[in-house]
Write a sequence for this structure.
């Protein structure tokens, strides 16, 4: 593998880790707050 | 030295910058001003041929919606098969074959989803404009498209034996999370 290909592979891998990690964190936070709001609504409705 | 690093890792830097900008956008005043700024576009959408047809002929809207749901089902199937294989399921099937075949099915179903989705959005443009969940769906869809074509595909186009298995798992989990959110928020719009 040439040096350029090696850098490209590392860059793709780095971008993959950053992007996929960002997505996982973002959607965990998003769904956490959605579930919390549903629980609060259910508590208000049924105690 | 720093310039050469930036040049060699520009995709990684762009991804980091993208998430920083996204988070800054969410916590700034820009989000509400952008929301107000796009209202005329949604008002115009309802006056287009698609908007009028979608509102006038309920049967046409239902047929297009059926196409949208079929597209969603096919897309979901391709995501489960492809990401399931990356996570270690269906070990009897060659990973390269599954990933490549699923990607072409995914691309066609995404095209069907976008085409039918635009028609449906025109029919109920003002309604969805005021729904926060619609904006989350659009965000998830945009993230998903960027992720699949600019991040996931370039990695999976390489020799899969050379890619770290944990990276493959991370890609699979994030892909499932994105498309699950797109599907769930889409159904949420339908039931609102």
């Amino acid at each position: 593998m040439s040096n350029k290909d090696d850098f490209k592979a590392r860059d793709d891998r780095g971008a993959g880790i950053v992007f996929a990690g960002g997505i996982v964190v973002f959607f965990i936070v998003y769904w956490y707050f959605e579930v919390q709001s549903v629980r609060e609504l259910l508590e208000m409705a049924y105690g | 030295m720093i310039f050469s690093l930036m040049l060699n890792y520009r995709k990684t830097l762009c991804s980091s910058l993208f998430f920083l900008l996204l988070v800054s956008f969410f916590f700034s005043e820009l989000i509400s001003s952008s929301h107000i700024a796009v209202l005329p576009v949604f008002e115009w959408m309802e006056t287009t041929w698609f908007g009028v047809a979608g509102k006038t002929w309920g049967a046409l809207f239902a047929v297009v919606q059926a196409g949208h749901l079929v597209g969603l089902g096919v897309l979901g199937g391709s995501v489960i098969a492809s990401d399931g294989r990356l996570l270690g399921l269906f070990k009897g099937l060659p990973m390269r074959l599954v990933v490549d075949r699923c990607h072409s099915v995914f691309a066609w179903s995404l095209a069907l989803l976008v085409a039918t989705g635009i028609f449906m959005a025109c029919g109920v443009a003002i309604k969805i404009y005021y729904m926060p969940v619609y904006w989350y769906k659009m965000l998830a869809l945009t993230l998903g498209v960027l992720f699949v074509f600019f991040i996931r595909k370039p990695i999976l186009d390489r020799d899969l034996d050379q890619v770290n298995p944990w990276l493959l798992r991370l890609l699979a989990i994030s892909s499932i999370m994105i498309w699950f959110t797109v599907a769930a928020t889409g159904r949420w719009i339908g039931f609102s």
Observations:
- Chain B touches chain A through 32 residues (CB under 8 Å).
- The mean pLDDT of chain B is 91.
